[in-house]
Amino acid sequence: MNSSRYRPRNFILEIAAILLAIIFLSPFYLVLSNSVKGLKDILIDAASWPQVFHWDNYSKVWDAIDFPQAFFSSLQITVLSVIFIVLFSSMAAYQIVRKPTRFNSFVFLLLVSAMIIPFQSLMLQLVRVTSILELRGELYGIVACYLGFGMPLSVFLFHGFIKTVPFELEEAARVDGSNPYGVFFKIVFPLLMPIIVTVIILNTLWIWNDYLLPVLVIGGNKDLTTLPVAVTKFFGQYTKKWDLALAGLVMAITPILIFFLSLQRYIVEGVTTGSIKG
Amino acid sequence: MRKDLRLQRGWGQQIVFLGPCLLFFLTIVVTPFFLGFYYSSTDWNGLDLDKAVWTGAANWRRIFTNDDKFWESLLFTLRFTVISVVAANVLALLLAFILMTTLKTKKLLRTIFFMPNVIGGILLGYIWQFIFTKGFATIGELTGISFFKLPWLGTPSTGFWGLVIVFVWQTAGYMMVIYIAALAGIPKDLVEAAKIDGARAPQLFKSVYVPLIMPAITICLFLTTSNAFKMFDLNLSLTKGGPGTSTQSLAYNIYAEALINNRYGLGTAKALLFFAAVSLITVTQVWLTKRKEVSA
């Protein structure tokens, strides 16, 4: 904002910002340090650094929530859904941009207006629809749901981006004898990379963290229980056993934190693009 | 003949490209949406729809005349939305301004402030349940500050503020990122010109920065408003609507009506009202702030 020189004023701002960041992070510190304490130590003093490390909190919870199972079903649901969302929504957006018939424009309008519908307004009827179509308790069923809910924003993002892709490239390929599918997958799709990253990130964060949809659609199928659902069940049983509950919490947030920290530049960029377009 | 072939291929492409998207969107979003109008006039209990009886306007009458809890949660949700939207955006703007200046730890700080966002609301609620019940109590004993000694999840008003604190903690970093992008897009010479003309910090903020980042303000207000109004996960894991039903959000009220009381028909009617309220509030807000947008 001001000049780019580092002045005393900047130093004071820096200290203030760091203090604020420490306050921001303190919940994570409290959860992390107490997750390796015994229950008695937590109840006596939740702020101090652990005297004795109870690593066995983790191994107990690992078995109790069947962490590998929950992790892999979250992973497979998220990955499958995101792949198909990227594929189907980019194809749809391409068709809408390049063939702007009255029908296609109407479809686009429908998708965009659906973004405003809150999930709670659909969920009860969705339970009915998914059981009629025998989607409940099945992997393809929950993925189908994420595809439906993921479409509006993703098509919207691709739509905005494809409008900026020069048409000449496609014409050239078409003159060279490529069919429409070849043009899309060989020429257009690779050009969409920046927005594909955004679509992947926004959908991954949402689907990975989602709680209510898996509860409603997966229901009792234990093989498909996702991480947020498993942790919630666990919390319900161990309300007063903070040592185990906190270890479970740390295990549940670790995968997505690793995802964030290793891809943070893209994530922040993706979030920015996503919201400016949205 | 040739023309026919081309036409056919046009149809083929339409089906291949748009078909999958439409199939899932119509099945998962559009069909349930319209079914809602039907179910909201039945006494469907969630199990056998065959036995659900058409009850006409009964659900609606019940909501409007005999359902104080619903209106209490609407009031709660409105209050929560107004306060947390203002708080989250003020904090986000403040952070964005601080992190626009030359700081050595700028990148690290941005990462830290954004971090709560990548964790789901359900887990954040549990994290804070621990902080409020055990963490704050310990800090209160150590420091003697009465703020930390409050029964944070034990009374309606502290429960309300607890939810506000967690929501702001979760959301501010996300909005900060959007504000930073907007601030970075402001032409430097414009700011310099205003300074040469003698504009001081408050004036600079009001007459230069705010008008120029108005599009970002529109977006951030839209996102925070609709998220706050639809709050569910946080509510479920942090207070469960309690004590009693004093911190029950509208979304939670719908959930409880259907899945705990098994009144799906009534729940659907509430969900439709909920949709109307969300649309009304967000469309009004976007319309109001859009009018204030200018271009540099």
Structure description:
The complex is a heterodimer of chains A (278) and B (296). Chain A has 278 residues and is an all-alpha fold. Chain A has a domain at 65-234: MetI-like (MetI-like fold). Helix content of chain A is 76%, strand content 0%. In chain A, helix 7 (139-162) packs antiparallel against helix 10 (193-209). Chain A is globular. Chain B has 296 residues and is mostly helical. Chain B has one domain (66-291): MetI-like fold. Chain B contains 13 helices and no strands. In chain B, helix 4 (106-114) crosses helix 7, helix 7 packs antiparallel against helix 10 and helix 12 packs antiparallel against helix 13. Chain B is globular, with a radius of gyration of 24 Å. Classes of the chains: A mainly alpha (278), B mainly alpha (296). The interface between A and B is large, with 95 and 94 residues. Chain A: It is a multi-pass membrane protein. Chain A: Belongs to the binding-protein-dependent transport system permease family.
